[in-house]
Each structure stands twice: as C-alpha cells, then as structure tokens.
Amino acid sequence: MSRDLAVDLGTANAVVRSPGKGVLVREPALVAVDERTGEVLGFGEGARGVLGDDGRQAAAMWPLRRGAVTDYYVTDRLFRALLKRAGGSRLVKPRVMVSIPSVLTPVERRALEEAAYGAGARSVLLISSPLAAALGGGLAIDEPHGLCVMDVGGGVTECVVLALGGLVSSRMVKMGGFDMDEAIQRMLRRDHEMAIGERAAEELKIAIGSAMPLAEDVKAEVRGRDLATGAPKTAIVSAEEIRAALDEPVQAIIVALRETLAETPPELAHDVLERGITLCGGGALLEGLAQRITEETSIPVRLTEEPLDTVSLGIERAFGSLASLVRAGMVEQV
Q1: pTM attached to this predicted model
Q2: Local mean pLDDT, 10-residue blocks, the chain (334 residues)
Q3: E-strand stretches of the chain
Q4: What CATH number was assigned to the domain covering residues 4-31+63-131+312-333?
C-alpha cells in the first residue's frame, strides 16, 4: 500500500514524480493566503485563480525564495497539498525523497523534513539539488572525473563541480528566472514609463527574450499601466531592449560559473573543459543562454532534454540505486 515519491520543491515550480509512473503533479510553487486570517486559500494554478478574484483579500506567497524557506506554515500546507494530489493518504503513506538546495541551513532542512512527515510521509530522504540534477542529466556521478552542472532556477542559480559523487566546488548566486522578469519590469518603468506584472514580464521574456543577439530584431506588444496617469497603456518593445535588460542577471550567472571553476583543482577543471557543462532549470530555457556561456568561457554547454524536470527526474532515478547512494552518503535518511 506504500510507494515512493520524488519531490522537487523549487522556487518557482513544484514537481512530484513516482518511479515508473513519471510526473504525478506539476504546479507553480505558489500559495494564496487570506491576509486577515492567514488561512491557505489555494495552491499552484488554483492560487492564481484566487489571487485574480477581486472579492478576496489574498496574498501570494512562495514558500521557497532565494533557496531559503520563507514561511514554515505555508511550506507545510503546500507539502500536504502536493502529497494529497499525488495520491498520498492516511492509508497510503509514501516514502518521500526531497531535493534540497546546497545552501539550506539546518533549521530550514528540519522545516522541510517536518513538512514532509506532517504531510503523511512514511519516511523521508534528502538529496542535494545539484546531485539530483547530475543524475537527471544522465551523468555518471560515481566516476572520478570532474562534472560541472549549472541549475538556473527561479530564484537561485547553483553552479557545482562534482567528482566521485561528492561536491568539489560550488557557487550559488541569488539570481534566476524571477530576476530576469524583474529586470524587464525595471526596463519598462525606466524607458517606457509603464508598469507590468510578473506574469506579463515572464511572457515577454519567453516571447522575445534572449542572452545573445537574435538574427532579426523582433518586437512584441505589451500592455500595462501608465506610471503618470494610472491609465492602461500599450507599448511596442524590441528584442534588443529585452536582451539589454537581461544582460545583468545573465552576466551574474556566468560570473558564478567562473568562480566555481576557479576553485576547482586543475585536473578536474581540465575534465570540465573536455566534457563540458550540463545546463538545466527553467532559466536555462532563455534563448541563447547556452551559446552565451560557451562564448564567454570557451567550454561546451549541453542543455538537458527536460530542463524543467531534470532535478525531479534525478530524484526519481535515485530510487533505483538507493542503497548504494545512502552508503556513499549521497542520499540522507532522516
């Protein structure tokens, strides 16, 4: 009556998988909370619907921000909702493996453990997000070669070099997809004197955003609010404007990679030069990002087949060799 669940609770999205069954739940890691009572009104896409209801005094909360737990109660509620949606109950208590950012404090780790147990987990296992990303990217983590993984998430980017399943060097920069959206919002406020929401900025990034100049400078229409009058406003924005706005967060990500490689022993750094960098995460889908990294570092970059699901896929695969991963200290039982 029990089963295994792989949980990737990221800054922007939450994914739950089951070995052999694939993705069971995929939702934005968003929770709508009543501003007066603190009651959780909805999560994921359901939370977006609540937030769009003008008759409700609801606030948007992201349980994980910048790789840290922002609210323990909301995290607990989200975990309960995810496991219930995945089929967990008082009768069916799953074994849950959760990916954790490498920068979580012991208190934050404990909060995630308690949230998983509180949601009905039979037992809880922890795996670092970079290691899960390496497994999801198809890398042989137990070999003595240097492996470089970059996970560009919603709120943070982690750059790591692994060897023999252990962490050799790493850098985490508080920069990701949300920062790209905010950079677009700032540009529009500055250059077009208009305000747009996070979702509109994300849609603009997806439509014409890039890290490298495009072959053709395409344009897109964006609707927002005039800063001077408060009235609705429409502007035409070019791909070049968006690229310039995104340059700061993109450059910060590349600097984190360079610092990681600078701390890597020469023989392992040479492995990375030969084998390349494995790139994953939602932010990795930015047009031209892999090419930009290669251009600035002279290291080949491989984008995983499923950048959004690389970490959750790696957690799922970890169940297949769980005993050896636990013995090697790569997965922790709590």
Answers
A1: 0.88
A2: 81 88 88 82 80 68 76 83 77 84 79 84 90 93 92 91 90 91 96 93 95 91 95 95 96 95 95 95 94 95 93 94 88 85
A3: 4-9, 13-18, 22-28, 31-34, 40-43, 58-61, 64-65, 68-69, 95-100, 123-128, 147-152, 157-163, 166-173, 194-195, 219-226, 232-238, 277-280, 301-303, 331-333
A4: 3.30.420.40
